[in-house]
Amino acid sequence: MATEEEIQKLLKGLHDAVVNMDEVAAQELSQVVLEKDVSAYLAVTQGLASGMNTVGDLYARQEYFVPEVLLCSDALCAGLEVLRPHIKVSGVEKKRQIVIGTVEGDIHDIGKNLVKIMFEAAGWTVHDLGRDVQLHRFVEEQAKTGSDVVALSALMTTSMMAMPKVIEMLRAENSDVAVMVGGAPLSRDIARSYGADGYADNAGEAVHEAVKMLEKLNR
Amino acid sequence: MTPAERIEALLKGKPLDRVPMFSFILGFCARNVGYPVATIYSDPEKSFRAQVLTREQYGYDSEPFYGYASYGGWEFGGEVNLPDGDYEQAPSHGRFVVESEKDVEKLKLPDVKTAGMLPLAMKFSHIQKEHGFSPSVVVGGPFTIAGNICPVDTLCRWLIKKPELANRLLRLATDHIIGVIRYWIDTFGKERVIVQIWEPLASNQIISPKQFEKFVIPFQAELHEKILAMGIRYLLCHICGEQNRNLPYWARVPMGSPGIISIGKEVDITTAIEYFGKTCIIVGNIEPAILQTGTPQEIYELCRQAIEKGKLAPRGYALMQGCEVPVNTPSYNLYTMRRAINDFGWYE
Q1: CB-CB: which of B85, B152, B159 is closest to A105?
Q2: Which of A137, A191, B49, B197 could join A199 via S-S bond, C-beta 3.0 to 4.6 A?
Q3: Which chain A residues are Cβ-neighbours of B213 within 8 angstroms?
Q4: Please, what is the average pLDDT of chain B?
Q5: In chain A, what are the domain boundaries?
Q6: Residue A93 pLDDT > 70, yes or no?
Q7: How many whole angstroms separate alpha carbon B116 and alpha carbon B105?
Q8: A160: closest chain B residue by CA
Q9: Which overall architecture, per CATH, does domain A97-216 show?
């Protein structure tokens, strides 16, 4: 059994491994977590995911950019690969779910992938539809999974025109679903005019925005 | 003044009757005259015709051109897909030629006479020449081309983990661009060719100012020096997206005299004048998303503000969109730019 001090040291080590883009350290420390019989759930939420939260803040403050965030997420994934099979599901609160994708006509998925990583790190179940996603697929996936949120991404001004259509289709099917949008050509005003419930200016703020949006909608 | 006279006066620093209006417009033109959007890239004759007719209709001064932002992928051996459907306006990547580290070793400089879209671009330039326009050649900057040869996320990882691979791609991209421009000069003469370089991927939406300084600037500066040494007189550099923190570095890159700097909505015109105004004509920066979704009043006001700031630029200013006009832009919104020029663009 690890002492409290050892556990805290491990959690900080995992946090720092993610922030420092150190895949090897994330993997090795995750192994130590298992060897010392520390809760894998604790190691993920308060170690790896907490590191990714810090990364999100660094990204939002423009101290980290896409290259750093990608390597941090590689470290996160390296740790998760070791720990995930050992997370005990019982006792864990029901996870929030999100359907995410880049809309039809748009193949740019870096922004969408960063947002996906942030939601995964925050413990959400993410249903990633990929890029150039036909509009009806968002509706089908939301209905299939009962997801709380649908997140739509676009980089191109032409493809962002698909967003109001998806929102209309989602509302027709399920008026309760919360929809957020993001991408370089979007703004909060455009998001509002499209009928979206939420908008995030960057990946670092996306999870916070989603939680705020659900609270506002009382869900 | 005719558009040709106005552009000549702008480039030579002579008095102008009014602020010139440029248009960053491709797919819109195809749809405007009843062609599929893909025609603008697949058929040089129809592309030219669509652009000339749209220019006549909206009364802007800039000339037709041929190019797209994902340039480089196809030329180095990958695949691009032409735009199709309601929500596409430009070619996009189908397959990248570089997916792994091993692929970089195998990469070779393409033949500029036969690779990818270059035969179509050359055909377009011959049509430009036949109609009395300057033959133009549009390429990405080295960083954007590197990010079209391999997926951008791979390039981003290599900047930190495998900088030698990123540098190899940047070297090839730089040498390729120089080869393309040499081919245009050999065909049309250095006095006539206008070069456009678009650099969206080096924006701070992707990389940091430090990465920009380390990876982008050495190749970009070398490229511009070599292009200018070849005798090219006019170089339009479109620094796309959020580039504010890169501006001090861009200001070190030779742009020619005058250079032409095209900025996106993210860079304020007054800021651009501070950095480049002494040596460059400033062009921009009406937000395409507002052009597409805003009201004519919003666009009119945006143009008024842009013209008032731009008019003060010592080497001149042209009103233009901050990036490509979306194909679904309402017709009246685009016309509104011309209306603003008529109302606010005249010099005393």
Answers
A1: B85
A2: A191
A3: none
A4: 96
A5: 4-86, 97-216
A6: no
A7: 20
A8: B87
A9: 3-Layer(aba) Sandwich (3.40)
Of B89, B156, B328, the CB nearest to A66: B156
Contact A184 B205 (CB under 8 A): yes
CB of B57 within 8 Å of any CB in chain A?
A: no
Which one of 2.60.40.1120, 1.10.1240.10, 1.25.40.10, 1.20.1070.10 gives the CATH number of domain A4-86?
1.10.1240.10
* B51-76 tens-digit pLDDT: 999 999 999 999 999 999 999 999 99
Chain B residues closer than 8 Å to A162 by CB: 86-87
pLDDT digits (tens, 9 = 90+) for B102-159: 999 999 999 999 999 999 999 999 999 999 999 999 999 999 999 999 999 999 999 9
pLDDT of residue B348 exceeding 90, the answer is no
CB contact under 8 A, A190 and B289: yes
The confidence band for B160, taking pLDDT boundaries of 50, 70 and 90, is: very high
Instruction: Give Cα A2 to chain centroid, integer Å.
Output: 31
Please answer yes or no on whether A161 and B27 come within 8 Å at the CB atom.
no
- Indicate whether A91 pLDDT > 60: no
Residues of B in contact with A70 (CB under 8 A): 153, 156-157
* Contacts for A163-166: CB closer than 8 Å, 24+ residues apart: A163/A103, A163/A194, A163/A196, A164/A193, A164/A194, A164/A195, A165/A135, A166/A103, A166/A135, A166/A138, A166/A139
Report CA-CA distances (Å) from B259 to A212, B50, B234, B316: 47, 28, 6, 11
Segments making up each domain of chain B, as ranges = 25-278
Which band of pLDDT confidence, cut at 50, 70 and 90, is reported for residue B260? very high
Residues of A within 8 A of B147 (CB-CB) are none
Local confidence band at B257 (pLDDT 50, 70, 90 cut-offs): confident
B244 shares contact with chain A (CB less than 8 Å): no
Distance from C-alpha of A57 to C-alpha of A63, rounded to nearest angstrom? 9
- pTM score of the predicted model: 0.93
| Both structure tokens of B67 | 């190019």
Nearest to A105 among B88, B241, B324 (CB): B88
Which positions in chain B touch A158 (Cβ < 8 Å)? 27, 87-89, 292, 326-328
> Is the CB of residue B295 less than 8 Å away from at least one CB of chain A?
no
Q: What whole-number distance in Å separates Cα of residue B99 and Cα of residue B79?
A: 13
> B13 with B345: CB under 8 angstroms?
no
Can you tell me the ipTM of this complex? 0.94
Residue length, chain B?
348
Q: What are phi and psi of B33, to 5 degrees?
A: -110, 10
Q: Does B27 touch chain A (CB under 8 A)?
A: yes
CB contact under 8 A, A158 and B92: no
